[in-house]
Specification:
Layout (H helix, E strand, L loop, with lengths): L4 H6 L13 H20 L3 H10 L2 H53 L11 H14 L3 H21 L7 H18 L7 H19 L5 E2 L5 E2 L5 E2 L3 E5 L2 E7 L7 H17 L3 E6 L13 E5 L6 H16 L1
Length: 323
């Protein structure tokens, strides 16, 4: 007989309808066979049959039957307990997913508000909330959702030009928040290239603070309005010995066409702010000879151990200008 789909939907995942245990069939069969033998012996008047007949009428048989009934009852109870545990686990999973999506909707509305009436959380708080969601995502759908809203939140922050680089403590908090998200989402669908790029930019800003005097470094350059209404703000400007050097941080990890496109943007920015040279900082670096522009210098920076390489590039640019 076909099962009722409605019953299947109500039945928790993994739960099975009550079934007679397989071991019960041979046990009952053997019991019937033994009983038949005993009856036969009784009919033919053997001593064994008479003894067994008396035994069947004694309290011993009742005790054995009681044990058998208890064993069967225990098996039934155990089956019911297993079904109940599966039901509870199913309900727990449903409740966890429901609670997760409620948290996600709350965070999404405050990370990227749909209208001005909604309150937007501070960016570090947004990152912290999304980190928690990335850590507790239970499937690929949830991971994708976290990754998508994170990309949107980072883009909104970049467009608002609110990256806090003027205060060392603020930069430290930002680095910590970005690192936590990057680690939580690593090797999952929640991973965000935008977060990694923003983290890299803040880390390079801190490296510039370490290697240069404060009076030579401008990490809050003004926003330039170029021709055609275009707006440009370099990541940093270094002014040393009368030389103005623009610094652009590019989170590019491969030698692809994106490099060419971004280099054109750097050349445009140099003209807009009147810089004579530009240093492009990337995780991998790129040989100067392929750039075709002596005013551009590419430096590979991945960690504080590369600070000296970055400082050497600054000195090299200043020295070449003097000559």
């Amino acid at each position: 007989m076909l099962s009722n789909p409605a019953d299947d939907e109500r039945r928790p995942r993994g739960a099975k309808p009550p079934q007679v245990p397989l071991w019960a069939v041979p046990v009952v069969g053997i019991g019937i066979a033994v009983l038949s033998v005993f009856i036969t012996l009784k009919v033919y008047g053997t001593g064994v049959g008479a003894w067994l007949s008396d035994f069947f009428q004694s309290s011993g048989l009742a005790g054995i039957c009681a044990l058998g009934a208890a064993f069967l009852a225990f098996s039934g109870i155990r089956r019911q307990v297993n079904v109940s545990l599966r039901n509870l686990e199913h309900q727990r999973e449903v409740e966890l997913k429901r609670a997760w999506w409620e948290r996600f909707e709350w965070a999404a509305g405050r990370a990227v508000p749909k209208n001005r009436e909604e309150v937007k959380l501070p960016y570090n708080a947004v990152l912290s909330t999304l980190t928690g969601l990335a850590e507790t995502a239970r499937d690929e759908v949830q991971q994708n959702a976290v990754g998508a809203i994170t990309e949107a939140a980072v883009q909104a922050e970049n467009e608002a030009l609110n990256l806090e680089r003027s205060s060392g403590s603020q930069s430290f908090n930002r680095i910590e928040a970005l690192q936590k998200y990057s680690e939580a989402a690593q090797n999952s669908l929640a991973a965000s290239n935008a977060v990694d790029a923003q983290l890299y930019e803040v880390q390079v800003s801190e490296a510039l603070r370490r290697i240069l005097p404060a009076d030579e470094l401008d990490l809050q350059p003004r926003l330039s309005a170029g021709s055609g209404g275009a707006r440009f703000r370099p990541d940093a400007i270094i002014r040393r010995d009368g030389v103005s050097i623009m610094v652009e941080v590019k989170y590019v990890r491969s030698n692809d066409r994106l490099w060419v496109k971004r280099l054109h943007g750097v050349s445009y920015g140099m003209r807009e702010i009147g810089a004579t040279h530009a240093i492009i900082v990337t995780p991998t670096g790129k040989p100067d000879e392929v750039l075709g522009n002596s005013a551009l210098t590419v430096v590979s920076w991945s960690s504080p151990s590369d600070d000296n390489r970055l400082l050497a590039a600054v000195k090299s640019v200043v020295g070449s200008h003097d000559h």
